[in-house]
Amino acid sequence: MHMNIIVVKNYEEASQKAFEIIKSLVIEKPDANLGLATGSTPIRLYELMCEDHRVNKTSYKDVNTFNLDEYYGLKHDHPQSYYHFMHEHLFKHIDIKKENVHIPIGEGHIEEDCKRYNQLLSNNKRDIQLLGLGSNGHIGFNEPGTSFDTSTHYIALKESTIKDNAALFFNGDLDAVPKSAITMGIHNIMESKHILLIACGKRKAEAVKGMIEGEVTEELPASILQRHPHVTVIIDEEAASLLTK
Ligand SMILES: N[C@@H]1[C@@H](O)[C@H](O)[C@@H](COP(=O)(O)O)O[C@@H]1O
């Protein structure tokens, strides 16, 4: 097993650690391909990147980014679209070029767009893929039961995911959360040279245990990371609390 597991005290330390990894990659390789994620977890990391860009002038002008997923049916300017999230939390604060930003399109011709995104991904291998972790073990929006062979696809969200995201982003309003999404598949995620997963808090402890100590199963999508040659997992004490080894 090639997982490098880093246990830190809390969310702030986890974000700092992840930031160090991303920053040193961008400095070493100014035209790096970054696979990016949304959700509540990377928010502090993105803040640190913006601050560092402002203060230390770390440049993203030759960086390309590829986001994991997008809700289906939200317009770009919807405040909860991932497109909007990424612009607000990261892109508008750094010197990345608009044309270097890639996010799946969550409306219109699904099949064509998935095909186009897959082509883009296979032409641009990611140097690093940032991941959060769903409380049910999903990565991107690859819900439990998704085949490990998938590339970018349309997926119906599980009840638990709708609930989690309602609580975090939609003021608890289940009806406001889109019921489906477009996501990079497990196959696309596994193509990245390095995978960096951050998980914090008690509600992730079960999934973290399965991901690291459980069997590799499509019922817990993140468990596939055990088969990747270069994975860094950053977890806080709460998320690590059920680990036995
Ligand atoms: N599609 C996203 C994932 O990319 C994210 O990693 C996960 C965890 O979210 P959070 O970081 O808010 O716990 O759930 C969301 O549904």
TrEMBL record:
EC number: 3.5.99.6
Keywords noted in UniProt: Carbohydrate metabolism, Hydrolase
InterPro entries documented for this protein: Glc/Gal-6P_isomerase, Glucosamine6P_isomerase, Glucosamine6P_isomerase_CS, NagB/RpiA_transferase-like
Organism: Kandleria vitulina DSM 20405
GO molecular function: glucosamine-6-phosphate deaminase activity; identical protein binding
Primary enzyme class: hydrolase
Leader sequence segment: none
Functional pathway: Amino-sugar metabolism; N-acetylneuraminate degradation; D-fructose 6-phosphate from N-acetylneuraminate: step 5/5
Domain called Glucosamine/galactosamine-6-phosphate isomerase: residue spans: 13-228
Entry's family note: Belongs to the glucosamine/galactosamine-6-phosphate isomerase family. NagB subfamily.
Name the UniProt record assigns to this protein: Glucosamine-6-phosphate deaminase
GO biological process, one term: N-acetylneuraminate catabolic process
Gene Ontology annotations for the cellular component aspect, listed alphabetically: cytoplasm
Residues the record marks as active site: 69, 136, 138, 143
Catalysed conversion reaction: alpha-D-glucosamine 6-phosphate + H2O = beta-D-fructose 6-phosphate + NH4(+)
Gene: nagB
Function: Catalyzes the reversible isomerization-deamination of glucosamine 6-phosphate (GlcN6P) to form fructose 6-phosphate (Fru6P) and ammonium ion.
